[in-house]
Write a structure and sequence with these properties.
Layout (H helix, E strand, L loop, with lengths): L1 H9 L1 H35 L3 H5 L1 H8 L5 H11 L1 E7 L2 E4 L12 E5 L4 E6 L2 E8 L2 E7 L3 H29 L1 H14 L14 H46 L5 H27 L5 E7 H9 L9 E4 L6 E4 L1 H18 L5 E8 L2 E7 L7 H4 L15 H4 L4 H11 L3 E7 L3 E9 L5 E3 L1
Helix pairs in contact: 1-2, 2-6, 7-8, 8-9, 9-14, 10-11, 11-14
């Protein structure tokens, strides 16, 4: 017995098998009891009690010959019988629908000189011949009771199925929990772990998924540490290259080399900043600023954009606590991206406030981004056009860095775009980010 209980506790398969087995047994019991009850009811109308056969004479006398149909109907109701009366010129029955064909009844035995017992389908019928009339009498069917038994059996069966549904639904709760956990891990939340104390197959699956998340997190952390280490190590040769470049004579080759080294230096800086922000323990340097005024100050450095840059400001400014250096980088990257892909069309910037959050919208009217790329466009090193050159398409880190800065402030960045119509990027930031370090 202990072994069975242990199997049920540790095996989802055995629990489902037990539920199925118990359900089958209960259904068999319900069917057997219902059929037995209906059979007992049928047996009750198969045989006519002896006191009726002994009192046939008094019954026929009450009906009379010629028969008094009113008396016949009264006796049929009192005795719960069906009474048929026939002769060559009439045919009468106490029931509108005769359930037995009395003409097909087979002789069984004589009761009196003019009365006999007949049977049809295992059921008794009394036939009396008197004064030219044939009287047939038999028990009425108890269909109502049979239907009641069927309804009760169906109700119990439905109840059993409902209980089974509840049990199976409860057993499968961990599956839904696993699905939600897998979705969170798939979206990049590798710190999430599915909690479960089950010891069956679902518990083993939960443990496997958590181990998988641990492995992924360890691999990505190792990659991040390697990337940061390489980036730091590259700073030294880059600095030496800059010093040696200063000793070169001024010419076109020196200018081109300077641009290349500055580009590499910018890439390294972006990589380091992205990895710092991607760390769950990333710390922001907080400063209190007038949010709209700060955004306006950042956009002023782009006032010489030939196609024109329009800024829409709110009527009243609000005090926000932000990391000024990083928010400046966020706005700068968004505007550089809009100018690079805006196809020399005007760019609009809108600053507003809603429910204590600051909202910055950058809208260009350039080439746009196809829908298939929108979900990945803010991933590192991702470019919608893989054939695009770096001087026109960048490294694929700008929007990734913008997203990390927004998330580090407790906000989000939303990108919507249509090919040929342009791109609309919305960044919303809370008034007080969750992770701050006093400046």
């Amino acid at each position: 017995m202990t072994t069975i209980v242990e199997h049920l506790r540790k095996s989802l398969f055995f629990r489902l098998l037990a539920i199925f087995g118990v359900t089958v047994v209960l259904f068999i019991v319900i069917i057997f009891v219902s059929l037995q009850t209906i059979s007992d009811e049928s047996d009750a109308i198969e045989t006519i009690p002896d006191y009726f056969t002994r009192n046939i004479e008094s019954i026929i006398q009450d009906i009379g010959t010629p028969p008094n149909l009113a008396n016949a109907m009264r006796l049929a109701d009192e005795l719960d019988w069906t009474i048929d009366i026939r002769n060559p010129i009439m045919q009468w029955s106490s029931d509108a629908q005769n359930r037995l064909d009395v003409d097909e009844a087979v002789y069984s035995e004589s009761l009196t000189s003019d009365a006999e017992l007949r049977t049809i389908g295992g059921e008794d019928i009394i036939r009396v011949q008197r004064s030219g009339y044939d009287f047939f009498m038999y028990r009425r069917a108890q269909n109502t009771n049979n239907l009641f038994i069927i309804y009760v059996g169906l109700a119990i069966a439905i109840g059993i199925l409902f209980v089974n549904y509840l049990l199976v639904n409860r057993m499968l709760d961990p599956v839904r929990l696993l699905r939600r956990g897998a979705e969170r891990i798939q979206k990049g939340d590798l710190s999430y772990r599915v909690k479960s104390n089950r010891q069956d197959e679902l518990g083993e699956l939960t443990e496997s998924i958590n181990h998988m998340a641990d492995s992924l997190q360890s691999m990505l952390e190792a990659k991040r540490q390697l990337l940061m280490a390489i980036s730091h190590e590259l700073r030294t040769p880059i600095t030496k290259a800059k010093l040696r470049m200063e000793l070169m004579p001024d010419n076109e080759e020196k200018n081109q080399l300077k641009e290349d080294i500055d580009e590499i230096d910018l890439l390294i800086s972006d990589l380091l900043e992205a990895e710092r922000l991607n760390n769950e323990h990333a710390v922001l340097v907080s400063e209190s600023v007038k949010f709209a005024e700060f955004i306006q100050g950042v956009t002023e450095q782009f006032s010489d954009y030939e196609a024109g840059l329009t800024l829409e400001m709110p009527e009243e400014d609000q005090e926000f606590t932000i990391d000024k250096l990083r928010v400046r980088l966020l706005i700068t990257n968004l505007l550089n991206n809009a100018m690079r892909h805006g196809e020399e069309n005007p760019i609009s910037i809108k600053v507003s406030f809603e429910d204590g959050r600051g909202i910055v919208e950058v809208i260009d009217r350039g080439e746009g981004i196809s829908e298939e790329h929108l979900s990945q466009i803010s991933e590192p090193f991702y470019r919608a056009d893989s054939s695009r050159q770096r001087n026109t398409g960048g490294f694929g880190l700008g929007l990734y860095l913008c997203r990390l800065i927004a998330q580090a402030h407790g906000g989000e960045m939303i990108i919507s775009s249509k090919i040929g119509e342009g791109t609309h990027i919305t960044v919303n930031l809370p008034g007080h980010p969750p992770l701050l370090e006093a400046a």
